[in-house]
Amino acid sequence: MRDSTHHITERKLAEEELRRLNRELRAISNCNQVLMRATDEQTLLNDICQIICDEAGYRMAWARYAENDKAKTIRPVAWVGTDDGISQSPGSPGRRR
């Protein structure tokens, strides 16, 4: 009985992993389609962030540009979702070291 329970658990975990990978593959495919049809950079960035949240299932996606200034500023240019303060935490993608 114990072996069958372990086997079922492993199978369910593998199925969930496969669903996650399929969502991400769908997101990559949709991003490629958006890239091929993009007419301007801002719309491209907005659309890709939206796809990452909607298709891949992430809570937040953002695009930021590193400025070439003394403070090493990172300027947000597109975002979708809620960050719940994540972007301000040390070591987050929103901060440059």
- Helical residue percent band: 40-55%
- Structural class of the secondary elements? alpha+beta
- Overall mean pLDDT stands at 87
**Count of distinct structural domains:** 1
Describe the structure.
With 97 residues, the chain is an alpha+beta fold. The protein has one domain (2-88). The chain is built from two helices and two strands; from the N terminus they run H-H-E-E. The chain has helices at 2-37, 41-54, and strands spanning 60-66, 74-81. Strands 1-2 form a two-stranded antiparallel ribbon. A hairpin with a 7-residue loop joins strand 1 and strand 2 (74-81). It is elongated, with a radius of gyration of 18 Å. The model is unreliable at 93-97 (pLDDT under 50).
Supply database-style keywords.
97 residues, alpha+beta, two-stranded antiparallel ribbon, 2 strands, 52% helix, 15% strand
Structure in a nutshell:
The protein has 97 residues and is of the alpha+beta class. It contains 2 helices and 2 strands.
Annotate the secondary structure layout:
Layout: H1 2-37, H2 41-54, E1 60-66, E2 74-81
Antiparallel strand pairs: 1-2
Helix pairs in contact: 1-2
